């Protein structure tokens, strides 16, 4: 049998191959340059957003660029199975899921007084039995002040402190709010709700909409909230004079026993906006108590369980998806860049430590 014959290979063109490789490298470099904003300096990038945080709060190596002051906590979530019809995520099947979390206040200064902002935050990482994770970052206000990443950046620029006073220019902030009426629901809510006296007695909201996917593949637009069993109480006059009362209060409460919240899932009706975090859904929407979050201990702020966790709200297990809210992708990118910066700072300075700052380098 004759062996099949093949045409001789084309002569090797070394310059051509080098040129092709060079073109790929140039294209990749151009892509990175575009993403970084070097080729379009006026385009909004994640680097510009994080740099705006640093301009407002100063640079604090090893700390988050936002929510820099916080404390690690841990516990578990007991699902009652009520949300399993909406989502096939393992966390909603009846049973227990371990949780790592973090309480914090907004802002990039880990030494800021607890009274510097009226908002508290709670970030959680649920680790399912199959290894998949659900990460969520929630605030004590159910709406966000702005609708788009561009507005958020403009707000950061407007809030930049003046060198003479160390505070934002009231006229600049007023002009920003006047130009962005979407901020009115947020402002109204904050004015009508005094800050909580404790991390333990506040409710925490997803703010953004997400989608739960059931076993049949049907999608349901949802938001959620962690509602405390501890009775709400507003901040006291004595606490207003203290710098670090939130962490001290939490530690004292946990010494007396675990703290609990109920995960309340709100299901949207057709027409409810899923791409606008400045708008609340009507109070009459269906609400489901999906189970109980128990926090039973806190850990060191410098080496605690949440230290190396990036609470990216787009890290989701099967059964939960992002919505069309434009803030979600921006949050994910900003969290990633913040994580990269602080871990790089720690890698370059292994002895980085701030014992005088009541902040969490996680």
CATH class: Mainly Beta
Low-confidence stretches: 1-7, 14-41, 355-362
Q: How many helix segments?
A: 8
CATH superfamily: Catalase core domain
Determine Rg (CA atoms, Å). 24 Å
Structural class: alpha+beta
What series of H and E elements makes up the topology? HHEEEEHHHEEEHHEEEH
Using the coordinates shown, work out and report the CATH topology: Catalase HpII,  Chain A, domain 1
Number of domains: 1
CATH architect. name: Beta Barrel
Topology, please?
Blueprint: H1 14-36, H2 46-57, E1 69-79, E2 95-105, E3 121-127, E4 133-139, H3 149-158, H4 170-179, H5 184-192, E5 204-205, E6 210-213, E7 219-228, H6 237-240, H7 245-255, E8 259-267, E9 287-299, E10 320-322, H8 326-348
Antiparallel strand pairs: 1-2, 1-9, 2-3, 3-4, 5-7, 6-7, 6-10, 7-8, 8-9
Helix pairs in contact: 2-3, 2-8
Q: How would you explain this protein's 3D organization?
A:
The chain is of the alpha+beta class and about 350 residues long. Helix content is about 30%, strand content about 20%. It is built from 8 helices and 10 strands. It has helices at about 15-35, 45-55, 150-160, 170-180, 185-190, 235-240, 245-255, 325-350, and strands at about 70-80, 95-105, 120-125, 135-140, 205, 210-215, 220-230, 260-265, 285-300, 320. Strands 1, 2, 3, 4, 5, 6, 7, 8, 9 and 10 form a 10-stranded antiparallel sheet that branches. Mean pLDDT is about 90; it is low at about 1-5, about 15-40 and about 355-360.
